[in-house]
Amino acid sequence: MLTLLRRASARLWVPLAVLVTFVGCQDTTAPLGDKSLAGPQFATVGDTTSSGDDSSDVDVEETIVTSILRQAPGAPVLETYQVSFWVRKKKATMVTVNYQPGPGEAVGQPFLWFSVPKDGLKKGAAGADLAGKDSVYITLTIDPVNFLVDFQPHGVLFNKKHPAVLIFWYQNANQDLNGDGVVDDADRELDEQLTIVYRPNTHANWHNKKSTKGWTYPYIFTPIRHFSQYAVAW
Question: 46: buried, middle or exposed (CB in 10 Å: 19+, 13-18, 0-12)?
Fold first, then answer.
């Protein structure tokens, strides 16, 4: 099921704290608890080549050849593979998609978080201007095999100073990244290269997206300013 502002469990609080810091503490209401961070918890990955134009509404990044991260053969199924919801310009919104709960779990492990801060929306579908009380109906369609999600409608833009944030959790990913039948140091080296990539449609090239990868927890996140297909890749 779609979950809005779901209470974070103990294992989720670190990336949520990062997310709150990124989009502004005043816009997120899920409790963080009182555990303190000790040392760096994440690293920035993904080479980018920026246009250098701060007024640009979209990312300009290098084209790459991509291998998309896949679900493990025994991974749980997700609660849903498509969610739709309204996002309002003057209200923060946070959406989560989890795996179905396993034995003894009240809530399944996380797969995807998507957050839009207050005043995050800049343009609606097809780049339409938005008034203060306007909203946009958003649909996320998740690939059942790959760590890939398609965002619609096309043309939606987010404020550069208040971007949306996308987090993928990949604890249920196939760890044999190079497909040689053995999980070894070669796969762990590829894991260190994981980043988020995007493309405007299925016929376009993939582009690197500067991403932040967890060190202690298996998650990766990035700010996004436009709707595309987004995936975890190396």
Answer: buried
Q: Which of 199, 190, 191, 189 has the alpha carbon at shortest distance from 224?
A: 199
Tell whether the model's pLDDT for residue 225 goes beyond 50. Answer: yes
State which amino acid sits at residue 25.
C
C-alpha pair distances (Å), 218 with each of 44, 70, 103, 169, 200: 14, 14, 21, 6, 26
Cβ burial, residue 67 (10 Å; 0-12/13-18/19+)? middle
Could you tell me the pTM of the whole model? 0.79
Contact call for residues 52 and 59 (beta carbons, < 8 A): no
Each residue's pLDDT tens digit, 113-141 = 999 999 999 999 999 999 888 999 999 99
Q: From the CB of residue 131, how many other CB atoms can be counted at a distance below 10 Å?
A: 8
Residues 6+ apart with CB under 8 A from 37: 14, 17
Strand partners, 97: 112
* H/E element, 189: helix 185-191
Domain ranges of the chain: 3-233
